[in-house]
Amino acid sequence: MYTAKHIQFSEKHAEALPAYYRLQQTIMDKLVNGEWQAGKQLPSERQFAQTTGFSVGTVRKALENMVHQGYLVRIQGKGTYVTKSIIDKNAVKYYRLRRNLSEQDVSLSVELLSMEEVPRQAEMDRRFAVPEDIPSFLRIERLFSGEQGEEHCPVALSTSYIPLPFGEPLKRAMSGELEDFSLYLLIEKYCRLPVLNSRELLEIEMIAERESEIMDLPVSAPVISSFMVSTSYDDTIVEFRKSLIRTEPFGLIRLHNFRE
């Protein structure tokens, strides 16, 4: 069972957020709206401090965090540059499929099955110890399938629970985005928080009738069940996720480094 500190993220709490984090959000906005493109050189730390009103120390910490997250890069003797847009759909590849560890990745497709608001559920309380101040979630169900040649096979049924009201902006996401982009990139784009850490519990369970039909498996077939909680700054919970995973004919590789 996993627990994580939960803080409410809303406008009225903005001033309570660390100064370096508020500056990171300012930079993130410029990346999201395209004002700062890949390759752009940022002002020096001192210039940044003068134009934003933050201290040089705050500017340095914000830039170092964004370098660590992969948004920026420091080049010795030259400065700090934007590495890539946060909405590059290839920036994060959480699932990868292979027949074995030595082969190349198998093509992975994603289908959005549903997105709806739901109340907290008993299974989530049992698995994740959901904080009492999270009454409801945005539930996003997606099916991941492997494709190689003419072979097409459902591999993972993933159900994400995004705490509300934090996840409210995600309702603006188009279905195509939820099929073409990493959910973590969309959380950053719409909710303005990066996913920094995840913890996961793996079990074996017998698949139920509804899920067996979706994944084209016999009822009660064994599958791997994954229970995961992902967090951002200050252990803010951004997602609970349950995934049902089959292991044939492909093997599912999970990558826990969110940026390549």
Report the count of strand segments: 10
**From the helix content, strand content and strand pairing, which structural class follows?**
alpha+beta
What number of structural domains do the residues give? 2
Q: Name the CATH homologous superfamily of the largest domain.
A: Chorismate lyase-like
The proportion of residues in beta strands is 25-35%
Largest beta sheet: strand ordering = 4-5-6-9-8-7
Kindly state the mean pLDDT as a whole number?
78
Report the principal-axis shape.
globular
Q: What's the end-to-end separation, in Å? A: 29 Å
CATH architecture assignment name of the largest domain: 3-Layer(aba) Sandwich
Count of separate DSSP helical elements: 7
Give a description of the structure:
This protein has 260 residues and is of the alpha+beta class. The chain folds into 2 domains: 19-82, Winged helix-like DNA-binding domain superfamily/Winged helix DNA-binding domain (Arc Repressor Mutant, subunit A); 97-252, 3-Layer(aba) Sandwich (Chorismate lyase). Helices cover 25% and strands 32% of the residues. It contains 7 helices and 10 strands. It has helices at 19-32, 45-52, 56-69, 122-128, 175-180, 183-191, 209-215; strands at residues 72-75, 79-82, 95-98, 107-119, 136-148, 151-163, 197-206, 222-231, 237-245, 251-254. The strands form 3 sheets. Strands 4-5-6-9-8-7 form a 6-stranded antiparallel β-sheet. α2 (45-52) crosses α3 (56-69). The protein is globular and about 65 Å long. Residues 1-14, 85-93 and 256-260 have low confidence and may be disordered.
